[in-house]
Amino acid sequence: MHKWLGQGAHICARMGIALATLVYGAGAQAWSATRLPEITIPGGGALSAQVDLNRDGYKDLISTAPGENHRGVVEVRYGSAKGFKQKADFRYEGAMDWAQVGSSPMALDVNGDGWPDLIVGAYTYSGSVEYAGAILVFFGGPNGFSQTPSQIIEGPEANSFFGFTMRSLGDFNHDGFADLAVSSNTAGGTQGKIFIYTGSRAGLVVKPDSTLAYPMMSWWDFGRSFDAGDASGDGIADIAVGSATSAGGGRPGLAFIYKGSAAGYSNRPDETLVAPDYVADTDQYGLSVSVLGDVDGDGFPEIAVSAPNYLPPTSSGDTVSPGRIFVYYGSAAGFNASGRMQMIGAPDADGFAYFGEVMLGQRDFNGDGYADLLVGASMRQRGLTGTLPFPGFLWVYTGGPGGFTKAPYKRSGAAGSVDGMGAIFDAADVTGDGQMDIITANPAAPSNPQGLLRVFRGAKGLK
User: Fold this and answer.
1) What Gene3D superfamilies does the database record attribute to this sequence (predicted)?
2) 57/140 Cα distance (integer angstroms)
3) Residues linked to residue 225 through DSSP beta bridges, in sequence order
4) Using alpha carbons only, what angle is made at residue 267 by residues 261 and 272, rounded to the nearest 5 degrees?
5) Which H helix or E strand runs over 51?
6) Residue 241 lies inside a defined structural domain of this protein
7) Is residue 21 part of a domain?
8) Could you give the number of structural domains in the chain?
9) Model confidence over 8-46: pLDDT tens digits?
């Protein structure tokens, strides 16, 4: 069985549970047709179901809606064998107009008291600097979360979108407190930065431990898309950053790998992944990146970079819909040195699929010990008019000795609907039965401003 460091997989050295561990089911599994009761939630936000917040043995749900009244809403629902309740157990409504609280929610024990703390971004928060963005920390405890933020850490400059994306770094410095990476994807003009924060007994240390900035000034939005996980096999979280936009256009995107260590993170990337020659600047290579874990069981983790707008040349005879994911296989010398790359696509989606806009790695859906990949394609570009349906899709690509399978398992939204499945999702064993479940929420749309939460239960036997 091959294990890897999952996202947020370490709360702190003093705590005997994990924030996000891989769930190995008892045999192969698929999503069953059985769904838990649907729940109406504020729409258009994000989901996280990786943590047992109240320590009762069940994973709990964090859902957000940054656009709710333009202030934002965060809700927590405690899990059980029956799933989640309609009424939230904790609810926080943003107190500032246009703060948009709720981006990239997660739970980490940053103060080392043994209870996970709730952390959310508010990327247009105005504090000492207008629209600089902020992250809000709610300390957890046996009675739940504080009703007001225990900490507010503000962004570095105006209009910098600080807090747009956040990722857990585990406890990279081994001091017993969880650590965190936060992006500010328009800091420094349009280049963007990622700030590394360490935990302490008082919470997150306000001064960043280090800052990652763009290694190439001619690319924009550094940090808008990034992921963290063990990409080198040393047990410490590494950071993969994608950039789909070059200044003035004309060049495909890039992806950068920063290796973590107990000493922290260097501002110099350890590897740069360049798009294949046939990828165009308009294909949005680097729009999404994911640290996958060990897909093929050779002991080295893999990384995926998507190009959701990639369209194969018609002369190739490839009739598959637009969008591709490029999987880079690891080796002792890194990703480029392995010389092995696999391109995967969706065999059964239409031209609006935007395949790979969201990816989720570091999961094992069929319990075979190989890392799998969950891919979303919401088709929500169709929904911008408010009239066209966009049901959306989710696919699971399973790992194995030869890499990812060519035939994925699929779940789609209802035909003719505005479900937008594939835009907002997570995967975890929420009912405690040992099977991986899929949690989805539809994005906000002109025709459907409310969100609808669905849990597709894991079931033995891939079909």
Assistant:
1) Integrin alpha, N-terminal
2) 16
3) 242
4) 90
5) strand 47-51
6) yes
7) no
8) 1
9) 333 332 222 222 222 223 334 455 545 788 888 887 789
Q: Longest C-alpha distance within the chain, in Å?
A: 62
Q: What's the one-letter identity of residue 453?
A: L
What are the distances in angstroms from CA 360 to CA 215, 249, 305, 379? Answer: 26, 28, 11, 17
Q: Is residue 337 part of a domain?
A: yes
Phi-psi region of 416 (alpha: psi -120 to 50; beta: other; left: phi over 0): left
Structural contact between residues 41 and 54, judged by C-beta atoms closer than 8 angstroms: no
Give the CATH number for residue 342. 2.130.10.130
Please report whether residue 234 resides in a domain: yes
- Going by their DSSP bridges, the two strands 151-154 and 162-168 should be labelled as unpaired
Instruction: Please tell me the predicted confidence (pLDDT) of residue 8.
Output: 36
Q: Which DSSP letter does residue 86 get?
A: S
Residue with tokens 């890897």: 4
* CA 166 – CA 103 distance, rounded (Å): 8
Specify the residue for token string 């956040």: 166
**Which residue is listed with tokens 């747009």?**
164
The region of weakest confidence among 30-44, 133-147, 405-419 is: 30-44
pLDDT digits (tens, 9 = 90+) for 233-278: 999 999 999 988 765 566 788 999 999 999 999 999 999 999 998 8
- Give the integer Cα–Cα distance in Å for 419 and 379: 10
Range of the domain at 166: 29-460
